[in-house]
Structures are given as C-alpha cells and as structure tokens.
Amino acid sequence: MTGRMLRRWVAAGMVAVGLLLAAPPPFATPAALTGQGAPPQRPPRRPDSVEELERKRRQQEEEAKREQERRERAARADRREALRQVHEDLGKMRETLKALETTLAETDPDQELSLELRRRSEELEKLAKGVRKNIKRL
C-alpha cells in the first residue's frame, strides 16, 4: 500500500465516523430530534399518609420493647445460672477445705508438705476464683 492510498483510507474512515456521529440514534423519538420534548421523568413519589407513618412508628416501638424484654429475660437467666454456680462452688469449697484441714492435721510439721496438700490448695484457689467471677455476674 502506498502513502497516497493510506491517506485516502484514513480520510474515508474519518468521513464515515463523522457521519455516524452526526446521525441521530436509531431509538430517538421525533420530539427528541427536534429538541422540543422534555426528558422522561419518574413519577413523583407519593408521600406516606400520617396513619401509615404512625403505624410504622408503633411497630418499631413494639419491636424495640420486645427486644428489651428478651434481653432482660436473658440477663435474669444468666444471673440465676451464676447464683446456682456460686452455691455449687461453695459446697465444693467446704468439702475441699475440710479435706485440706484433715490432711494438714495428719501432716508432720518437720517433713515436707505432701503433694496432696498442694493439689487441694490449688483446687481451693480455683474454686474461689470461680466464685469471684460468678459474683461479678450477679
């Protein structure tokens, strides 16, 4: 292809593009072609009636009230469970303390402390921490 042919092809392409850009779109209405018609608009949104707004507000209030009651029931159940756990742990602490006391009474003060004493004291400490944690939940 020579330079002259290339220039003719480029010029022909530019003319074709110009014609395409100048032509109206195939889906244009006659009013849009003359520029007289206004663009289509969405229908106006109807305002909510006062009754409907009141109904929505009451419904939201009722939902909030139900949610609050659900939270309160869950909190009461959690407190009951914490109290039950405290009573259970206190009973175990009494038993462990009595066992620790009898083991300590049988231990000779001149000898090393037994592993049994250490184990019972750690168990007592663990129960006391559990009681403290559950008391905070009350």
Q: Can you walk me through this structure?
A:
The protein is mainly α and 138 residues long. It is built from four helices and no strands. The chain has helices spanning 3-22, 30-34, 50-106, 115-137. The longest helix has 57 residues, at 50-106.
Briefly summarize what is shown.
The chain is mostly helical and 138 residues long. The protein has helices spanning 3-22, 30-34, 50-106, 115-137.
Topology summary:
Blueprint: H1 3-22, H2 30-34, H3 50-106, H4 115-137
Give the tally of β-strands. 0
What is the number of helices? 4
Q: Provide the low-confidence segments as ranges.
A: none
Largest sheet: none
Succession of helices and strands: HHHH
What is the gyration radius calculated from CA atoms? 44 Å
Helix content: over 70%
Shape: elongated
Distance from first to last alpha carbon: 94 Å
Strand portion = under 5%
Class inferred from helices and paired strands: mainly alpha
Q: Indicate the mean pLDDT.
A: 83
